[in-house]
Amino acid sequence: MRDTTDRRPQHPVRARLARVGAALAVLAGALVGVTTLSGAAAAATQGPCDLYAAGGTPCVAAHSTTRALYAGYGGPLYQVRRASDGATRNIGPLSTGGYADAAAQDAFCAGTSCVITVIYDQSGKGNHLTQAPAGGAAPGPDNLANATAAPVTVNGHAAYGVYIAPGTGYRNDHTSGIATGDQPEGMYAVLDGTHYDAGCCFDYGNAETSNTDTGNGHMEAVYFGSIKVWGSGTGNGPWVMADQENGLFSGLSTGYNANDPSVSHRFLTAMVKGAPNQWAIRAADAQTGSLSTYYSGARPNAAGYNPMHKEGAIILGIGGDNSDSSDGTFYEGVMTAGYPTDATENAVQANVAAAGYRTSAPAGAVAPGSRVSLQATTACCTSDYLRHDDADTKVVLSRITASSPATDKADASWIVHTGLANSACLSFESANSAGHYLRHFDFELYLDPNDGTSQFAQDATFCPGGGNSGKGYSFQSANYPDKYLRHYAYTGYLASFGGSNAWDATGLWNDDTSWLVDPSWG
Ligand code: AHR
Ligand code: AHR
Description:
This protein is mainly beta and 522 residues long. Helix content is 12%, strand content 33%.
């Protein structure tokens, strides 16, 4: 056994917030049924944009990779491009007004990986989102999102969200019908409230047409994350704030505003709206319940925000000047012409709740207390399992069959525990080395004794979700949410989709990070 007490991480540890409460909400939320409306009926008869139109504030941009946002919309939702041959394919709803045809994406992307190239505007205004160009704060073009990194179900239908890792961004600088100057507008976005960071700036909304910071009041966008540079609310974040350029505002003043709480529902509805000397922040659990108003009142009491100087570009996942160091996940969102009433927004929130966003693989499916073996799904390796070595503490991939020696079978067997660092996630104890757990260190996988530290608990906690390839499960690191359990060159790693380590390679990433959970060999 290696000595685990005197090693020091050699990689700088990126600051990440513990997400215990957030992930607990996943479990609770996943079990809550929608009792007030039939999701199927609501989706078929009305979409959020039908509700905004009825309220006199029609959508002028409507983006979603999960569902149609008008009952009458049957066009493409988004476009994917696959790595193998560079071909693209539009993904539409299964039916007019319905849910995304994720199976079409799975078929098109089978055996390779795909990125999202276009998020179509359903409003008819042509305000599609595509790869963001370079801007004042960062070069470009930005990265495109891995098309399978944010699996979800919507009213029981598999779909994929837009997974924004740092460096990823979408934009449209040539829009039609989006508010400019001091014109009124509203917007909402449904996000993953557990996927965020303190980088600038995971935004969706109105920004500069020049990709540069042109001054206070030149933006009006929903922001979600935990950066404290400009504004903050109670707790440690994340917060819904309004990016009004050179300021993420949580209320009337720059800095702290006590009415803006930390919110981290697994599915989060985040809203911002603005009119002459008036703006508001509202949010809700996107699975249930009603909107709370965190701010509604006059423009920020700092120079340059009244009147506003909105320019009418649309951004997703970046700041106005293409600041691109933020994390987040986007499922759907719209922008309106006119300042929506609270009543209209409340109806939209009810529609979102009825749409039935759920995690695609509840943690309960891999039950604490069970004994499992984790089988690789990549074509190379479908008889191979994640196991620890006997010679050292490395965790590797090797072939296990019915005739394998008992020691090998036991080395590939794990006792599932409630996550050491997060009770909504899991930890894996070796079946033949009591008290020793699967953990990452320097982004490689090891079997080490639990030393009781919170660092160990974090390193040994993995959050299950639907497989990144659409098969089985993927296991997301509790302390590096961009990274998943992966095999690469028959060795166990913690890997992001693209990154500085060899094992972050994007080829086969989806397959290498997807595992079948089998009854244990030993
Ligand atoms: O307002 C916060 C950020 O500041 C904007 O998104 C960006 O354009 C500027 O760097
Ligand atoms: O781990 C076996 C294979 O090694 C992986 O599928 C691939 O990423 C690498 O070449």
